Amino acid sequence: MLSDLDISTNIRAVDPRKDILPVADLIDLCFSHQMDEDGREYLRHLRQAARNPGLIRWVQGAGERVSYPLNGFVYVIDGEVVGNCSIIPYYQANHWLYLIANVAVQPDYRRRGIGRQLTLKAMHHAQAQGATAWLQVREDNPGAHKLYLELGFEEVTRRDTWLFKPNRPVNGRLPDGVRLLKRQRADWQQQSEWLANTYSPDVTWNLPLRIDHFKPTMWDFLDNFLMDLQVTHVAISMNHQLGGVATHQRTATFADWLWLAMNPATEDTLLPYLLAACRKHAHHRNLVVNYPAGRCRPVFESSGLELMNCLIWMRAPGATKS
Ligand SMILES: CC(C)(COP(=O)(O)OP(=O)(O)OC[C@H]1O[C@@H](n2cnc3c(N)ncnc32)[C@H](O)[C@@H]1OP(=O)(O)O)[C@@H](O)C(=O)NCCC(=O)NCCS
């Protein structure tokens, strides 16, 4: 339980009629230096939303669990929005998870307790709704990390995000005994186990990955077709033993996803060839890989991927469910 909260009267819920532009400006100011194309797209959407009275009326009528991205709190001084935090709801295994995001304070107002108050407010709100609060902070943001630790957030995991840009030169010849193949039906059991190891429920709630949808059955194929989920699997073997399967998942955003199911015993050896195969297969697309922090870093680097960020995933104190 959170103790009695001394939440400032300067904090109020985001009012979509007047806060969208100031919030977009604040997010721009505080995060633009580290934003990818999806982040910039998000800002464009926010600014478009501000010009759309129909959407604003709908958002006001909708419950908070469907009204993202206009759900959260602002800190206001003399009528000016100087701080913001967003709340992004997710539903997993019959439980709501509230991701606290975009915690941002105007530079002139920092170190006065505003970021702390906004985060506390969001934690309190999540608790009141029976939801578990989560947040993600970059490893290279020690100030914010300290703030969240002080509020009792506990680290659950760290994840690297890698970007594989198109047209990177890739390693050529496969060594003797190594083969690239289409994923076979018989590979599924092993693939799903390796996937579940690398992408546990503690992270999948916040990733567009549904491992079940990769099953090699006709039903799943049809299901994916109807849901417009376009995936291609490439397998690699060494001396006739499956070493891993990479799944390329198309998106309509700036990058596609690459999900890696690798045998930890041989991944240092085989991953470069599998990455090279995926690079050739999706040659014109950016590819993003989410992987446990630190795992295979030299392999990713020597294969031409760039580390976009390392995120610390943190959960609110007292929460037991993911
Ligand atoms: C991170 C951020 C929101 C903090 O807001 P803030 O209002 O300055 O934070 P607070 O004043 O509430 O800080 C509370 C405590 O957190 C820690 N802290 C916050 N910023 C810190 C910094 N830059 N360096 C070290 N500690 C810091 C301190 O322990 C601080 O207590 P103290 O001032 O008594 O030492 C703000 O710096 C910001 O907007 N940064 C850019 C956006 C960003 O990185 N957001 C976090 C995304 S996860």
Write structural notes for this entry.
The protein is an alpha+beta fold and 322 residues long. The protein has 2 domains: 142 residues, Gcn5-related N-acetyltransferase (GNAT) (Aminopeptidase, 3-Layer(aba) Sandwich), CATH 3.40.630.30; 149 residues, Gcn5-related N-acetyltransferase (GNAT) (Aminopeptidase). Helix content is 32%, strand content 30%. It contains 10 helices and 12 strands. It has a 12-stranded mixed sheet, sandwiched between helices. Helix 4 links the parallel strand 4 and strand 5. Helix 1 packs antiparallel against helix 2. The chain is elongated. 32% of the residues are buried. The N terminus is likely disordered. The site of coenzyme A has 18 residues, from strand 4, helix 4 and helix 5.
According to DSSP, the number of beta strands is 12
How far is it from the N-terminal to the C-terminal residue, by CA? 17 Å
- How would you name the CATH homologous superfamily of the largest domain? Gcn5-related N-acetyltransferase (GNAT)
Q: What small ligands are held by the chains?
A: coenzyme A
User: What top-tier CATH class of the largest domain fits best?
Assistant: Alpha Beta
The shape, in one word, is: elongated
Q: Structural class per helix/strand content?
A: alpha+beta
Strand order of the largest sheet: 1-2-3-4-5-12-6-11-10-9-8-7
Strand content: 25-35%
For this structure, the CATH topology of the largest domain is Aminopeptidase
* Number of helices, where a helix is a run of at least 4 consecutive DSSP H or I residues: 10
**Helical content band:** 25-40%
> What's the overall average pLDDT, rounded?
89
Low-confidence stretches: 1-5
Sheet with the most strands, sense and barrel status: 12 strands, mixed
